[in-house]
Write a structure and sequence with these properties.
By secondary structure, this protein is of the alpha+beta class. The chain is 41% helix and 18% strand. The chain is built from five helices and four strands. It has a two-stranded antiparallel ribbon with strand order 1-2. A two-stranded antiparallel ribbon has the order 3-4. Helix 1 packs across helix 3 and helix 2 packs antiparallel against helix 3. The longest helix is centred in the last third of the chain and has 22 residues. The two termini are 25 Å apart.
Length: 140
């Protein structure tokens, strides 16, 4: 849990802490794929972390193939459905698998997927969320 300097104010809650799950996917070849999940609330970590471990065990010993990993992980959820927490866990493994594949190839993931490296226009609110402008004017 990360303690936030400034609470996140959303319509449904004010969050003073931010859960963060760091994922390291170790391959048989020694390449480590990394990803992270930010599940918004602490309670969700009680479900996601065991699910990540279960998925990791299921994929242990398999050749690094992100599309096959995703399909196998998704199919393993047949009886619990393909949405919500279960798919968040699958997404974490999916991101780590793609990262591992790019690291194994020695190229950035965007290049591996056919893109190129360069500036990307983006909007940054610095996490101001629903705070009023007067509350965050000095930071904005």
């Amino acid at each position: 849990m990360l303690k936030l300097k400034r609470p996140v104010v959303a319509r449904i809650a004010t969050l003073t802490e931010w859960p963060l799950i760091l994922i390291d996917l170790y391959t048989e070849e020694g390449v480590i794929g990394r990803a992270y999940l930010e599940p918004y609330i602490l309670k969700s970590m009680r479900y996601l972390i065991p699910a990540l471990h279960d998925l990791g065990e299921m994929l242990k010993g398999r050749r690094l193939a992100p599309i096959e990993f995703h399909e196998a992980a998704r199919k393993s959820l047949h009886f619990v459905r393909y949405e919500g927490m279960s798919m968040i866990a699958v997404a974490g493994i999916d991101m780590a698998a793609w990262d591992a594949l790019a690291r194994a190839a020695g190229v950035p993931l965007c290049v591996l997927l056919g893109g190129s490296i360069g500036p990307v226009p983006a909007y940054n609110s610095n996490g101001l969320w629903l705070r009023s402008p007067t509350e965050v004017a000095s930071e904005a």
